[in-house]
Amino acid sequence: MCSIEEEIQTGDAETPSIRSRRRLVVEGLCHKCKQSPPVVDMKRVMYCKTCFKESVVYRFRGNLMRATKIADGAKALVAFSGGASSRLLLHLLSEFHEPDPSNLRKKRKFSDVLICHVDQSAVLGGEDKEAEVRRIGEKSGFPYLHIPLESIFSNDDGSDGGALVPVGFDLADTVTLKMVHRVTSTLSPVARLRRSIHGLGKMTAKEDLLHHFTMRALLNTARKEGCNVLILGDNATRMAIRILALTSKGGGFGLPIEVAGDTDWFEGLVVARPLRDVLSKEVAVYNQYTDLDTVVMPALTTAMPAKSSIDRMTEEFLVGLQRDFPMTVNTVVRTAAKVTSEHRAKTVMRCPMCGGPIQDGTNDWRSGHTVSQLLSHAPSSDTTSEALSSTSNTHPCSTSCACAPTVNPESTSTSCCTPADQPINIIPYLCYPCQNICRDAQEFGATAAKKGIDDATVILPAYVGEEITMRKGREWMKKEIEEFLIDEED
Ligand SMILES: [Zn+2]
Ligand SMILES: [Zn+2]
């Protein structure tokens, strides 16, 4: 019998503590049960089929049971795209939710489970695959909700929520994106959604906005259905890619929210990622052994080269590295989990576009390293808002008004009109990565307008404007009553 333990014992360099941590392995047999022939090699550990599946289930259950922020008896919404990872999530959750036959009095972790599929076909295509996703979802026995992504442009009651439309573009001014809320529009929600994604030039910006919209649709549905938990199928590989990509896009401040196994950052709702320790390769192998059917949905970068977006490039880099160094993904995820930021500080605001935290001083930092104004101003255009408007109030406010078009968030002193009707430069109210999305929209819109194309400009859902208006109102109110407030230190 040959074992690593025996080999180690002959080596002088190994200390007893390292030696004791090594597991006894038997060549030609599963490293865990040491009885069956191994069929899976995961991170250089050989498993038999049964032990491999047990290991995945163990990590999944462990993550859910350890999630301290999830109260027992919570109602859960499971995000289901039809892809491999969310398919496995659904399968494991159905088993997890089954009553324990050995202890029927044992309470379930979740009182109810709902499945939510956000249909992105308006942007990505693949409408023909929606029926298959529904079939798989309904087969699980949980209630199935089909939410079209374009619903983010509607109010909760399904009525038209209007949209934020740009008021002119200026290639020479990259730190301004003035937008105004239009109550009615001739564009359908699907057309608006397409304009918001295709009104961006770079694939990175498109992917980011699509991600924010999808997350928003999931959070909205969870709240509407009275759920306390939103369960996502993010696996370790996907999370590692997101961590590196987000950091490279300047989103490191919000990393603790993206990496957490369970986070209550989203008010009244815990977001859980129970597959955060399971590699995408393990997901594929498990699905194959269990005959779980999946649906391959198109993505924005399908059939595109690796350099088409930051996320796509990061994926290529990470997956390549993982091939030679099997601990890469786990190291990235575990290291990122140790990162702390001041995102829970009282002064930190929520970004109206992505819902993430906005680092204090973001605008000062950007203005310190960005050339925002070019001397020769290119002519600005005002085509989009005209095409979309039916109710428009173009009276400019005074610059000191809380709803003035060029208002500086710090300099408001009076309010004189309905803020929703006034154009707002939305960029200063967003987090750093979302500011980059808007800068992309500004550049792309200005270039298109220069060429006389007026239907290539970005449109945003009304909630972005509403949240900015609310924040401006709060800031204005705070300014008004500031002198009457008692300082905590006094
Ligand atoms: Zn085994
Ligand atoms: Zn943001």
TrEMBL record:
Purpose of the protein: Plays a central role in 2-thiolation of mcm(5)S(2)U at tRNA wobble positions of tRNA(Lys), tRNA(Glu) and tRNA(Gln). May act by forming a heterodimer with NCS6 that ligates sulfur from thiocarboxylated URM1 onto the uridine of tRNAs at wobble position. Prior mcm(5) tRNA modification by the elongator complex is required for 2-thiolation. May also be involved in protein urmylation.
Protein family: Belongs to the CTU2/NCS2 family.
A single GO BP: protein urmylation
Domain of life: Eukaryota
Listed GO CC annotations: cytosol
Record-given protein name: Cytoplasmic tRNA 2-thiolation protein 2
Species whose genome carries this gene: Spizellomyces punctatus (strain DAOM BR117)
Molecular function GO labels: nucleotidyltransferase activity; sulfurtransferase activity; tRNA binding
InterPro entries associated with the record: CTU2, Rossmann-like_a/b/a_fold
Pathway terms, separated by semicolons: tRNA modification; 5-methoxycarbonylmethyl-2-thiouridine-tRNA biosynthesis
Organism ancestry: Eukaryota, Fungi, Fungi incertae sedis, Chytridiomycota, Chytridiomycota incertae sedis
UniProt subcellular location: Cytoplasm
Gene that this polypeptide is encoded by: NCS2
Record's keyword terms, sorted: Cytoplasm, tRNA processing
